[in-house]
Automatic annotation (TrEMBL):
Domain CNNM transmembrane per the UniProt entry, residue ranges: 1-62
InterPro entries (UniProt xref): ACDP, CBS_dom_sf, CNNM
Organism, as annotated: Corchorus capsularis (Jute)
Transmembrane spans: none
UniProt-recorded name of the protein: CNNM transmembrane domain-containing protein
Coiled-coil annotated residue ranges, if any: none
Keyword annotations from UniProtKB, A to Z: Membrane, Transmembrane, Transmembrane helix
Cellular component terms per the entry's GO annotation: cytoplasm; membrane
Amino acid sequence: MAPLVRLPPFFYFFPISYPISKVLDWMLGKGHAVLLRRAELKTFVDFHGNEAGKGGDLTHDETTIIAGALEMTEKTAKVAMTPISNAFSLDLDTVLDVETLNKVMTMGHSRVPVSYGNPTNIIGLVL
């Protein structure tokens, strides 16, 4: 009896689990794996959000990030870009005082382009 104790548990359960798996494969078919389209996956993520009493575990920020990642393949650079005329930037000679830093913080960007003379002449970024 001692040699049987040393065997891994799947040896004991194999005679039961293998026939059950074959019956399930026969009943459900071989292709019963679920593949979701992007829209269905987005709905699934929204369903698991914790907003509006849905009871999910995902925060608003998490659902927004996941939804943005799902939509990324549909976007082009032209759609995602901000025209240079509308972009917030700093001139090279701008002093980084409290007022300027507050302005940068209120814009909400993690990187601010730095230009020299003309706003289209970007020479670097402030991180």
